[in-house]
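ok new one. same drill as before - structure tokens go in, u give me an amino acid for every spot. 363 of them this time. try not to just spam alanines like last time pls lmao
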């Protein structure tokens, strides 16, 4: 067997999400052929790739078919999360900024943000969570670090904030800086405070920074999307008709031409009630499939359903997010994280393809 033959075989294996073969996508690294073994790395675009097993099996099948008997094919599945943009002046070192938004309050946006961030980290990614809900910061309570004060140091005459680390992710919330004192920010002041707060936090290297936005579609949102390079937005809704009507506003905000942020998809929170001890029993108390139908209507991906489970509320209040305990909720948030990571990778691939095409001269 030669390396060329192996590469040729691997160039028949497609990444089903990105619709290109692994060799063209530059995903094959460190190919070695020795002692009856063909070893290589497959570098996926996210550690949470739900297609990991399929791609691995496709590689083994394609190479084995060419190599024949007597060869063992050993792909090593690794990952390198793709970045939304190269060399952005804001948030350098942060590959993807994912905004979590909702058209209206109380749909569980903060709960989804916190558990999504932890689920991404559980799959091996470097993750930060920014609580941009400056009117009602909830990260300090949800992560049991209400008494923490982030360290501030001077760098080139500027105050730089070190985020708090808890449960393996980096956290920043205006709540850390204001304590119990409610802050009344007005439009432009809120935008500039938030901009400073984001830019002056030392995040270091992150694969994903999840941003929990305030509810609604106001000035803060516009300010944020204009000042921070967002990979995409996740819209949280509940199944009721009234909540779904607000989703439209949320989607439209991100898609308007001067904003133009891809909507990674819709997640339906509180999709149905389930008793934790009987997870197969599902009660669709607010109606069924509203989020899914909304996603279809607007042509955006449906990212998944999160059930209403008593422990989600309890764990949020006790500072120990639900995903940290095995069970039906950990499973639901795990699937959501896989889907968000997947849609981010797809969106990044589309963006870089469009960039290459616009850079290619048209003869
Ligand atoms: N799937 C769920 N099951 C049970 N309780 C939930 C679920 N999702 C959220 N909750 C609870 O609902 C309440 C509101 O959730 P959360 O604070 O996340 O909403 P929000 O949309 O961020 O609110 P706000 O608009 O105030 O920012 C919290 O007490 C939370 O624990």
């Amino acid at each position: 067997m030669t390396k060329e033959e192996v590469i040729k075989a691997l160039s028949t294996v497609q990444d089903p999400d990105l619709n290109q073969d692994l060799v063209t996508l530059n995903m094959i690294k460190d190919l070695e052929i020795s002692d009856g073994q063909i070893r290589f790395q497959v570098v996926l675009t996210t550690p949470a790739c739900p297609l990991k097993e399929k791609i691995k099996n496709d590689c083994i099948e394609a190479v084995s078919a060419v190599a024949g008997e007597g060869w063992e094919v050993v792909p090593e599945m690794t990952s390198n999360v793709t970045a939304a943009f190269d060399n952005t002046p804001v948030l350098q070192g942060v590959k993807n900024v994912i905004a979590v938004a909702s058209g209206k309050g109380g749909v569980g946006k903060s709960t989804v943000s916190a558990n999504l961030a932890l689920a991404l980290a559980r799959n091996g990614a470097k993750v930060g969570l920014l609580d941009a809900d400056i009117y009602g910061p909830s990260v300090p309570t949800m992560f049991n670090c209400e008494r923490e004060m982030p360290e501030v140091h001077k760098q080139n005459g500027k105050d730089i904030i070190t985020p708090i680390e808890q449960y393996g992710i980096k956290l920043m919330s205006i709540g850390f800086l204001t304590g119990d004192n409610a802050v009344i920010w007005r439009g432009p002041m809120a935008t500039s405070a938030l901009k400073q707060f984001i830019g002056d936090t030392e995040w270091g290297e992150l694969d994903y920074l999840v941003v929990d936005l305030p509810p609604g579609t106001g000035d803060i949102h516009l300010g944020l999307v204009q000042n921070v390079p967002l990979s995409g937005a996740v819209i949280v809704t509940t199944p009721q008709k009234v909540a779904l009507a607000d989703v439209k506003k949320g989607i439209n905000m991100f898609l308007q031409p001067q904003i133009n942020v891809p909507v990674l998809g819709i997640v339906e929170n509180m999709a149905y009630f389930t008793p934790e001890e009987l997870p197969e029993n599902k009660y669709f108390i607010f109606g069924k499939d509203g989020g899914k139908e909304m996603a279809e209507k607007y042509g955006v991906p449906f990212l998944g359903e999160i059930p209403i489970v008593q422990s989600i509320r309890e764990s949020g209040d006790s500072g120990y997010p639900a995903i940290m305990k095995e069970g039906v909720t950990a499973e639901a948030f795990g699937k959501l994280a896989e889907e968000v990571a997947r849609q981010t990778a797809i969106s990044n691939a589309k963006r870089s393809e469009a960039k290459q095409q616009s850079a290619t001269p048209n003869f």
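The mean pLDDT is 89. and btw Residues 94-357 form a domain with the Rossmann fold fold (CATH 3.40.50.300).
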